[in-house]
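The freezer alarm interrupted the setup, so I double-checked each line after restarting. Inputs confirmed:
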Amino acid sequence: MRDRIRSVLRQHAQLAQTIEELSDEADLYRAGLTSHATVNVMLALEDEFEIEFPESLLLRRTFGSVRAIEEALSSVPSPSSRS
Amino acid sequence: MPPSVAERAVGNEHPRVPVGLDVRSWEERVAAVAACAGQHATQVDAAARFPAEAVEAMGAEGLLGAWIEPTLGGLGASIEQIAWACGEIGQRCASSAMVFAMHQIQVASLVRHAGDSDWWTARLREIASTQRLIASATSEVGVGGDLRSSKCAIQIDGRVGTLTKQAPVISYGLEADDILATARRAGDATPGDQQLVLLRRTEYSLEQTSRWEALGMRGTCSHGFTLTARFPAEAVVPDAFARIATDTMVPVSHLLWASVWLGVATDAVRRARTFAREDARRSGRTGGNARLAHLVARLHAFRGVVHEEVREYAARMDDPDALGTMAYAIRVNNLKVNASEAVVAIVQEAMLVAGIAGYRTDTSVTLGRSLRDALGALVMINNDRIVAANASLLLASRED
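Predicted 3D structure, all chains:
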């Protein structure tokens, strides 16, 4: 999952550093993630994982690090488990 | 204390002394300030000068420490009370009200994000006890007015920090006692990796680069400056600016600005009503003025929106998750757009009621200053920028 997250970030996060230089815990905002880029990352994650983030997860800290994104994705029900 | 870079040429170093903190009600204090602001409003506007009398009155009434809790010597006012005060002062002098609002935004950022270290507690106590006026240096030449982006950087060397910032605007920069500035956290930080730093008058020098000569809000004296500062390392506000902006600076700015504009609109409607009543008396008509009735309906709708958003913030203000959602960001942005459009529309409609008497600048119901002050609302953080931000957020958020 982390590789797929990193792949999305590589394409959409527009960071000052390459994603390979950053640990899973590194602060992505500190690395240059803007609110505009956050929206693109979020949309790309939804496409990649075929999920829809609930409104309650559309928070700054949800996209703050690779780890935070992973935790958020794990908490979102996949389409197949939805009634 | 680090040595000061240069003493300020303008401004007085004597502290303001708040009086009668325990006796007077919030309403009495605000009424006194509003009355004083009203007395000097025409002259402040005409000369584009700082509303010194109104700000001295704010200090005397303790209002510059309104947001600070009573245990630290402040008044411990609520956001509802402070927003209401913006509206009351705004009915008399929009420039005075905007200075009041901007100061409260700075204090709110400190109260909510500086933490409770001895150093910061002492600073908050000092702001309350000597009623220091705090200005803001957030905009910067070369970042296109983007609050969340800085070019300049804080340099920390041991216990001393330095900063140089090209600020196209620092409202009441010459008159302030302290300046709260944004900058990149360090020389190698990205543009969005910002911190706030509180600079005392003795710790900075200002070189004026432009003069505020504007259509309205003329008393805010929003000149441009090069800010050069040398300050103790503790003066960097502990929370990251990203958090301060989301949780406090952006929502509180929009709430208090909207409250000031509500005051401008309320005053314009009062002028229109005065004219309509006198006109009816003169002409002997008894049917009333339908346009005035429509105008009052608009004012009530505007007031409803502002009050609802102030209550909403009060309900969320201690919950970062509730403040940090995209849906709430959109909502706060919309308040700014709606409120700025409402104040212009209301003042314009008031002009139709008051007719030539409102258009003239020498009558008791003149709307000239109201209209000029109101138009500033559209471009203080340009509405097009805010709509563009919301358009982006709406790609993600699905909340209605």
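Quick read of the result. Chain A is about 45% helix and 0% strand.
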